[in-house]
Amino acid sequence: MNPRPPFRADHVGSLLRPPVLREARRRHAAGELGPEQLRVVEDDAIRDVVKMQTLAGLSSATDGEFRRSSWHMDFIYALGGVTRGDEQLHVKFHNAAGDIEFNPSTLRVEGKVRLDEPIFAEHFEFLKEHTSPGITPKLTIPSPSMVYYRGGRAAVSETVYPDLEEFYADLAVAYADQLRAMGELGCTYLQLDDTSLAYLNDPKQREMVAELGGDPDTLHLRNIAQINAALAGKPDGMTVTTHLCRGNFRSSWVAEGGYEFVAEALFGQLGVDGFFLEFDDDRSGGFEPLRFVPKDKRVVLGLVTTKRPELEDPDALVRRIEEASRFIDLDQLCLSPQCGFSSTEEGNDLTADDQLRKLELIVSTAERVWGRS
């Protein structure tokens, strides 16, 4: 709908894994299915999900993150110098029924951070090959903030990096190398997924940062500077957006709080082309922080939830877009789900039909508000 991304109707990236893919990945993990056999199942599932996005009316397509177990750790573990820790993190997620715990492995920075080879290069090439003309293939990767946020200083070897500034510098170079490599492969739409800049709006998360030895009042500034350093050599013709999320695991969340704490620095200093922002319920606060968004940036309003199957009222969506336009020009706005449908391979509590209906609703609502281009 827009000639360049982010598009009036867009989505965050991850999509529900079909049962055949989940079973194949289970069998592969159990040693019952070889990597080539798994690849065949993944390829078929990705072809189907790309067609689904096109049929829904979207102008971009991702591979649904179907070759990953999670939205971020598959990428981070592929960075040179980063290893999987022996321990597990204990992250408490919340939902209407109560709390659930997510226990991902920790990470350790045991060597100099570097990009040994482009990460997800083959994933993107396959996606690009199977994307129809007129549809923009989109790659999603975690922002550099995610390499440091959960583990803090304790996750970074003081022997390798006695000075954390050297770690930050190497991390920026690794990401800049990744963006350059993806640009050479023809990637024109790349998204940096970040929970830290949304989490830091929550006082409880700032307490956690302090407990890990960080400065909760300035960490968002450090993370913005880190992302900007990674973007310094962004390839010409590549649109880079960021998606901010307060947690998305099996229809549950971690943090809450509006964007006000980070808004002025986030919107005024972060050198991305657009922001995917979570606005599907009261946890995200109001639209007032959008007053800080510069005129040359787009904001993708995440008004359609991926956490519940119930379909939103299109009239209510239009009213919320109009409400947001009190603080930012309507022409700078777009519409999307608030997060992915399947940030981890377990997925949220929706069906594939629910997912399709929500994507179609986003497209039809965007056409109603902005018309067809």
Structural descriptors:
373 residues; 11 helices; alpha/beta; globular
Can you characterise this structure?
Helix content is 36%, strand content 18%. It is of the alpha/beta class. It has a six-stranded parallel β-sheet. Strands 1-6 form a two-stranded parallel ribbon. Strands 2-5 form a two-stranded antiparallel sheet. Helix 5 (164-184) links the parallel strand 7 (139-142) and strand 8. It starts with 18 loop residues before the first helix and ends with a helix. The model has no long low-confidence stretch (mean pLDDT 92).
The whole-number mean of residue pLDDT values reads 92
**Poorly predicted runs:** none
Order of helices and strands: HHEHEEEEHEEHEHHHEHEEHEH
Strand order of the largest sheet: 7-8-9-10-11-12
How is this structure best summarized?
This protein has helices spanning 19-29, 35-56, 73-77, 121-129, 164-184, 196-199, 203-211, 219-231, 260-269, 314-324, 352-370, and strands at residues 60-61, 80-88, 91-95, 98-102, 105-114, 136-137, 139-142, 189-194, 239-244, 274-278, 298-304, 333-337. The protein has 373 residues and is α/β, with parallel strands linked by helices. The model has no long low-confidence stretch (mean pLDDT 92).
